[in-house]
Amino acid sequence: MANANSLRLDLDIVEVLGKRLQPDAMIVQEDRNLVMAGGGMLDLDSPQGLDAAYLAIAEHRPLPLGRFLLLRSRGEEAYWTYQAVVHDLESNPTCRAGNVRRSLTSILKDSVKRGMTSLTVEPLGVWRKRGLTLEEMVEAIEASIFEVGVSLSSPLRVTLLLEDLDSVEQVSHLFRSRLLCKASRSFRTVDGDAALVEVRQRGFRLHCRFVPGSLSGYAITCVGGPS
Q1: Largest CB tally within 10 Å, which of 112, 121, 155, 167?
Q2: What CATH number did the domain enclosing 96 receive?
Q3: What is the pTM assigned to this prediction?
């Protein structure tokens, strides 16, 4: 079955956050003992007992890898924060690609259920040369993007924030190279202003369109399911 909703992946530099980029939520990386990120208030869809619930979870650390926590916006922040639990600081490497894929996939699905349309994400798993390589990070994020793209119920924009334009260029090249390697075919759009690449995912046909002006991102639309 065709799906008119698109998942758009953009790349940008981190300094745009809070300026020209105002997401509904940001996704940050966290370790299983909640050491890496600051504290906050856990959202359990309940108006009461949030502090107690957060403390209860903290008592059960270390948390399972591949999960996530959701923190409400604080102070003047307009966005919420997803904490992707992907690191074990006592291990080397501290992160495995599978944990990033599981956590990010769950976060993206949860954000859609909550009516969110725009998210930013850190380079999950990349940390002090002890975690994932850029190549492993790109592979894990790509896997999540395609997994969610086959059943998207509403449009979603995900922006990967990187330190500088050199990093954006490097990561953009990795995403494009992987996409072209996965392509079953490629062609031009009717208006001729962008290239389309068709990718197969679990029997689904996904059209990936390179988005002008998004620092080499692309939009994914499911156009057909298993016969």
Answers
A1: 121
A2: 3.40.220.10
A3: 0.84
